[in-house]
Amino acid sequence: MTKPLCSTGLRWLWLAVVVVILDLGSKFLVMGHFQLGESMPLIPFFNLTYAHNPGAAFSFLADKGGWQRWFFALIALVIVVILLVLMYRNGSKQRMTNIAFAMIIGGALGNLFDRMVHGFVIDFIDFYVNDWHYPIFNLADSFICVGAVLVVLEGFIAKPNTAAKSKG
Questions:
Q1: Quick check: pTM over 0.90?
Q2: pLDDT single digits (tens) 46-65
Q3: Could you tell me which of 31, 125, 149, 160 has the fewest CB atoms within 10 Å of its CB?
Q4: Is 131 an active-site residue?
């Protein structure tokens, strides 16, 4: 017996679509207005810097000859499928978890699009302190991280039924 989609966590997939649109739109703007490597200071600790990343987070495996493109694409697809299944199984009341999963799905799909179309991920957010620069990243990475933090936070929030059972 299947559940109506509105009673599952899949009702939050609109958020994943918004994340993909914001991510790809921001990358489109950067590609259209910057040359590769060009940087524009915005405030004393933040630049927009156009960069390509053929690896994963923090340029992990970026110099490994191209096979990592397909490896990271496969990982993204597996994660998206697993999270979709979990969202389907979740009730619509598990808002924080479903929102987190939707953010991660949207970010994964944004970076997957880059890998499949360009062969690398487009990054442009550059935070720094003096001469130290945090690795350049993008909106998809930001949404993935916020989603992951929400999943962790959800683990620390006591469920009403769990709290009631532990007192009884």
A1: no
A2: 999 999 987 665 555 555 56
A3: 160
A4: no
